[in-house]
Specification:
The protein is an alpha+beta fold. It is built from 15 helices and 16 strands. Strand 3 and strand 4 form a beta hairpin. The structure holds histidyl-adenosine monophosphate. Homodimer.
């Protein structure tokens, strides 16, 4: 068969899923600490949701969406990101009326973008993201950023860089937009057709253009920082103060504009500075979106959030050469030699599992030596061997694979002894 996974997608094989589960667990635990609650929204949405929120001049909407007509002739799109769906649900379910504001949500699931595949860039990837909707307190900007940093730190990453910027409020942006149009207009013919389209609609996007990034006018373009009005500048100062209070180091980059249209005020990205991480160094991105709830039909409710892909997190862990904790979870490998002992092995394996002890056995009638090799490969903590001799004594030979010690244990106390041996081995390892 020559059917392979579609370009830009990947199978995550059993040897890899352990790491994913560790990360997912760590993320859910962090969200619990910070009191963000999970929301699950559909994988596809009405296309209009993304054109209205992410923005119809962005690369995501113009080039990267998986859009299709369903049989009822509706235009639907596989979600390229999670903020639009979270905000749609916030409006649709009137979460603005919840007594506890801001509403703090998180999501984790596949997103789809038709991008050129390279290391760290996929067409289907898993995003973990959070959204805090209903507060314009700069302290929550710091909370959102600190949650992202905390996830990376718990995953063992040290080589991180946080870059922040302020995109200002509407007034600041209008002033900046005018300055950008004046700057680029006389030479716009030298730019790509996308940039020409962006000039009037959304000149900020020009600064994000991958084609024209080396054009001399890019470096001299008016910076948003110089156009922030007093209120926006004061807000940005407070966000920085809170980050300092939490001892979170950051760099301000006035050129950080982000690739989605809904942002204003705080924008940020977290990069990996690990050598060998590859060309794409952005691990996570996010920012404030104070007009988005209104844009999608709700009452004015300010919001902020971020998203990160799990794939890039795992790549960063690898680039820093961090080892995952021993992901093996097999406690006991049960070996039954001979027909009668085999029956006992089946019974015992079942009993162990019912006692919250992970257990595995052989289903290929292999030799004892081969089964022992399996136990080693599976990193079992203990092996139980039952042959005719043991059966006669109503006992099993319990072998500790860490120390090599063996003891004959009666069936009547076997579960108890297995539990003790596991605990002893785990404690010895931890010391
Ligand atoms: P974004 O910058 O488009 O923002 O994506 C956020 C993160 O998703 C990236 O930093 C990266 O980790 C991951 N990502 C994006 N595209 C790919 C890809 N093709 N392959 C692998 N990973 C990818 C957003 O999506 C916003 N919704 C973030 C946000 C939430 N802003 C406010 N709230």
């Amino acid at each position: 068969m020559d059917i392979k996974v579609p370009r830009g997608t990947q199978d995550i094989l059993p040897s890899e899923t352990g790491k994913w589960q560790v990360v997912e667990e760590l993320i859910r635990e962090t969200c619990r600490m910070y009191q963000y609650k999970e929301i699950r929204t559909p994988i596809f949405e009405h296309t209009e949701l993304f054109t209205r929120s992410v923005g119809d001049t962005t690369d995501i909407v113009q080039k990267e969406m998986y859009t299709f007509q369903d049989r009822g002739d509706r235009s639907l799109t596989l979600r390229p990101e999670g903020t639009a769906s979270a905000v749609r649900a916030f409006v649709e379910h009137k979460m603005f009326g919840y007594p506890d504001q801001p509403v703090k949500l998180y999501y984790m699931g596949p997103m789809f973008r038709y991008e050129r595949q390279q290391a760290g860039r996929y067409r289907q990837f898993v995003q973990f993201g959070i959204e805090a909707i209903g507060s314009a307190d700069p302290a929550i900007d710091a909370e959102v950023i600190s949650l992202a940093m905390s996830v990376y730190q718990k995953a063992g990453l040290k080589k991180l860089k946080l870059v922040i910027n302020s995109l200002g409020d509407t007034e600041s942006r209008v002033a900046h937009k005018e300055a950008l149009v004046n700057h680029f207009e006389p030479h716009i013919a030298e730019f790509c057709s996308d940039c020409q389209n962006r000039l009037q609609k959304n000149p900020l996007r020009i600064l994000d253009c991958k084609v024209d990034r080396n054009h001399p006018l890019m470096a001299t373009a008016p910076s948003l920082t110089d156009y922030l009005n007093e209120e926006s500048a004061a807000y940005f100062e407070k966000v920085k103060e809170y980050l300092s209070l939490l001892n979170i180091p950051y760099e301000v980059d006035p050129n950080l504009v982000r690739g989605l249209d809904y942002y204003n005020h705080t924008a940020f990205e977290i990069m990996s500075t690990a050598e060998g991480f590859g060309a794409i160094t952005t691990l996570a991105g996010g920012g404030r979106y104070n007009g988005l709830v209104e844009e999608l039909g709700g009452p004015a409710s300010p919001g902020i959030g971020f998203a990160m892909s799990i794939e890039r997190l795992l790549l960063a862990v690898e680039a820093e050469n961090n080892k995952w904790a021993d992901l093996s979870t097999l406690d006991v490998y049960v070996i039954g030699m001979g027909e009668a002992a085999k029956k006992k092995a089946v019974e015992l394996t079942y009993e162990l599992r019912n006692n919250e002890i992970t257990a595995e056995m052989d289903y290929l009638d292999r030799k004892i030596k081969t089964q022992m090799k399996s136990a080693d490969r599976l990193k079992a903590k203990l092996v139980l061997v039952i042959g005719d001799d043991e059966l006669e004594k109503q006992s099993a030979m319990l072998k500790d694979l860490a120390t090599g010690e063996q003891q004959l244990v009666p069936f009547s106390t076997l579960i108890e002894q297995v539990k003790i041996s596991i605990t002893t081995q785990v404690e010895a390892k931890e010391q």
